[in-house]
Every structure is written in C-alpha cells, then in structure tokens.
Amino acid sequence: MVSETIEITPEDIFGLIALSGDAKASYHQAILLMQEGKVEEADAAVKAGDATLKEAHSIQTKFVTLEAQGKTATVGVLMVHAQDHLMNTILVKELLGYMMNMQNEINQLKGMDQK
C-alpha cells in the first residue's frame, strides 16, 4: 500500500503559532484582570482565549485526522515549533482555572470589591 503524502502549508503552521499566541495572551490578560478584581472582564478574556484556542486546535486536529487515515506529512522545525506553542497554551489554560480561583480567594481576603 502506497501512503499518500500531505503538505503542511506555511499558512497552517503560522496560523497555529499565531492563534496559540493570541489565546495565551488572552489567558494572561485574564489573570491580570483578576488581580484588579475585574471578574467579569477576566471571564470574558478566558472565553475569548478559549475560542481562539479552539481555532488553533482545529488546525492540529486536521493533521492528526489525516495521519490517522494513513496519510503522512514531512514535519519540519517550524511545525515542531508550532506544536510547542499549542502545547504551552494548553498548559496555561489548564493552570488558569486554579490561578483564577486562587486570585479570587486572595481578592476576597484583601476585601476587594468584585467589579
């Protein structure tokens, strides 16, 4: 059986990097907003980050699906770099919930109004 080769385009690679970076920036913004006691704005930043991360993840899912179907791709350093960005953003997302809860407790102990 001859395997079909797929091409990972620079647009997909740089899209993955850019979307991952945008999502991570939203998550960082969310924790900064929480530190200021701006809970609603922080929640909105998390939701924006989640939407952007979903877009980035869909790019990765496309390639995982194609490979699962028996198609192969040549993976270069840029694609590895893009995967690193996505992985790090997913890790930030996983830790963000804990950090938001901790910051909320800190804000309550400080007597900060929830804005």
Automatic annotation (TrEMBL):
The UniProt record lists the keyword Transport: yes
Keyword vocabulary terms for this entry: Phosphotransferase system, Sugar transport, Transferase, Transport
Modified residues (Phosphohistidine): 81
Gene3D superfamilies, A to Z: Phosphotransferase system, lactose/cellobiose-type IIA subunit
Superkingdom as given in the UniProt entry: Bacteria
Pfam family, one: PTS_IIA
Family annotation (PROSITE patterns): PTS_EIIA_TYPE_3
Transmembrane domains' residue ranges: none
Protein name: PTS lactose/cellobiose transporter subunit IIA
Source organism of this protein record: Exiguobacterium antarcticum
